[in-house]
TrEMBL record:
Superkingdom, taxonomy of origin: Bacteria
Keyword Flavoprotein: yes
PANTHER family in the cross-refs: BLL6224 PROTEIN, D-2-HYDROXYGLUTARATE DEHYDROGENASE, MITOCHONDRIAL
Keywords on record: FAD, Flavoprotein
Cross-referenced Pfam families: FAD-oxidase_C, FAD_binding_4
InterPro entries: FAD-bd_oxidored_4_C (IPR004113), FAD-bd_PCMH (IPR016166), FAD-bd_PCMH-like_sf (IPR036318), FAD-bd_PCMH_sub1 (IPR016167), FAD-bd_PCMH_sub2 (IPR016169), FAD-linked_Oxase-like_C (IPR016164), FAD-oxidored/transferase_4 (IPR051264), Oxid_FAD_bind_N (IPR006094)
Sequence similarity: Belongs to the FAD-binding oxidoreductase/transferase type 4 family.
Record domain FAD-binding PCMH-type: where: 47-228
Protein name as catalogued: FAD-binding oxidoreductase
Organism field: Herbaspirillum lusitanum
Keyword Transferase included in the entry's annotation: no
Taxonomy of the source species: Bacteria, Pseudomonadati, Pseudomonadota, Betaproteobacteria, Burkholderiales
Length: 479
């Protein structure tokens, strides 16, 4: 039993379900096994659990009522948004004692304030719908990731999601101004303030962002909006080494400033995997290169972005910093490049079983880290199919290892432990992090204790104890 888990009190599931049905009505309670199944399994197929009931409250008040009941009965709660996570943070265990609280019925766009540049939404709003609501008000919400058509704002906040625009706009933490949260005892904390300055004590908002549902249920948020970009310039480049791409990043940043929105990296093997397993994709460059980068500039108006990007990359070509470049001339070509970048997760699922690493390092350390990691894997004698890609502009690598689809569970488990220890030890040597944007969940929970200092773990456990003394909020995750 995890150190934060406690046996539940002797309240029958029948009593609990009856009370939940009284609180939420038929639309808010799912008891049929076939209807529960999509909530019980993560989309990667790595984790599967069991519950007696899935609840779908329609608003904050119903959420509070559910949490109050669970608090009174010591029933553990697993909060779930779009169920698109990478770390098993929203999947229940197999005890059957937990309740899944799905936020998907809480999907209101509460307010768009174009003067204050904010949007207030329910936690269950799908990310793409928040983006569209901003667009209709001639504003821009910049969080963008492959699952934006199904992931929810609440899940994005719970994991402090990143995505492709972090280089310019920051993670979800930087994009959130205020939160509304149902606390573990059912009380509602209303922190929905659209303020950019609020120096009145401890920042409670930041405690809940990235806490993965272990401190409360996020039910609403005030998010930052920006001026809608009306001009873009996009290019795909090839280089012989990762160091060359890092040098190019420095040069593009110096020349283009805040217009640089994305600088995405894919190794040759990553690109090859997508071309093999994702339909309607083709290699952007004629010749194969060891590393590739997808670069995008944007601005509120066309200030010569295309010429600017062509100029800086042209100089890089002349100096042989890069070996080739392809510029898009229309939206269709741009979308085709982004389909390649965003198709890696899908390609890995189709190609085999991936041991995923979501790591962050100082950008300057990336080339040396990759060289040492590749050498360490070679020295270990492990057979590896490395899939190295990520958000080069913010130092976030997905340094993955792909195993055959036929790999048995025990072999996968053993390989994962060996790979993780080797890679994560090296990450810590470079003052990096073993979790950059996917969260800890149950995937990295035990490793967190190994890599965090005893003092950091003690402080996090104290915070958990203060907010959730009955340990009912997403037990077995994060801590």
């Amino acid at each position: 039993m995890n150190q934060l888990q406690q046996p539940g009190h002797d309240h029958s599931s029948a009593y609990l379900i009856r009370r939940l049905q009284e609180l939420l009505g038929p639309a808010g309670v799912i008891t049929e096994a076939s209807e529960q199944e999509p909530y019980l399994r993560d989309w990667l197929g790595k984790w599967h659990g069991k519950v007696s009931v899935v609840v779908r409250p329609a608003n904050t008040e119903e959420t509070a009522a559910v949490v109050q009941l669970c608090h009174a009965t010591h029933t553990p709660i697993v909060t779930q948004g779009g169920n698109t996570g990478m770390s098993g943070g929203a999947t229940p265990d197999d005890s059957g004692a937990q309740v899944i609280l799905s936020t998907t019925r809480m999907n209101r766009i509460r307010e768009v304030d174009p003067v204050n540049n904010t949007i207030t939404v329910d936690a269950g709003v799908i990310l793409a719908h928040a983006q569209e609501a901003a667009r209709q008000a001639e504003r821009y919400f910049p969080l963008s990731l492959g699952a934006e058509g199904s992931c929810t704002v609440g899940g994005n906040l719970a994991t402090n999601a990143g995505g492709i625009a972090v280089l310019r706009f920051g993670n979800m933490r930087e994009l959130a101004l205020g939160l509304e949260v149902v606390l573990p005892d059912g009380r509602i904390w209303n922190g929905l303030r659209g303020l950019r300055k609020d120096n009145t004590g401890y920042d409670l908002r930041d405690l809940f962002i990235g806490s993965e549902g272990t401190l409360g249920v996020i039910t609403g948020a005030v998010l930052k909006l920006f001026a809608q970009p009306h001009a873009r310039a996009t290019a795909w480049v090839g280089a012989a080494s990762l160091q060359q791409l890092v040098s190019l990043l420095t040069r593009v940043r110096a020349r283009c400033g805040e217009r640089l929105v994305a600088f995405e990296m894919m190794s040759a093997r990553s690109l090859e995997l997508v071309l093999e397993h994702v339909s309607d994709t083709r290699a952007p460059l004629e010749s194969k290169t060891a590393y590739n980068a997808l670069i995008e500039l944007s601005d509120t108006e066309d200030t010569g972005l295309q010429a600017m990007l062509e100029d800086v990359l042209g100089q890089a070509l002349e100096e042989e910093l890069i070996s080739d470049a392809m510029f898009t001339s229309n939206q269709s070509q741009t979308a085709a490049l982004w389909k390649i970048r965003e198709g890696i997760s899908q390609a890995q699922v189709r190609a085999g079983k991936a041991i995923k690493h979501d790591i962050a390092l100082p950008i300057s350390a990336l080339p040396l880290f990759v060289a040492q990691a590749e050498q360490a894997l070679a020295d270990s004698g492990m057979t590896t199919d490395l899939i190295n890609f990520g958000h080069l502009g913010d130092g976030n690598l997905h340094f993955n290892v792909l195993l055959p689809a036929s790999t048995e569970y025990e072999a996968m488990k053993s390989a994962t432990a060996a790979f993780n220890r080797l890679i994560h030890d090296l990450v810590i040597n470079f003052n990096g992090s073993i979790s950059a944007e996917h969260g800890v969940g149950q995937l990295r929970r035990d490793e967190l204790k190994h890599y965090k200092s005893p003092l950091e773990m003690e402080l996090m456990l104290r915070i958990k104890q203060a907010f959730d003394p009955n340990h009912i909020m997403n037990p077995g995750k994060l801590l």
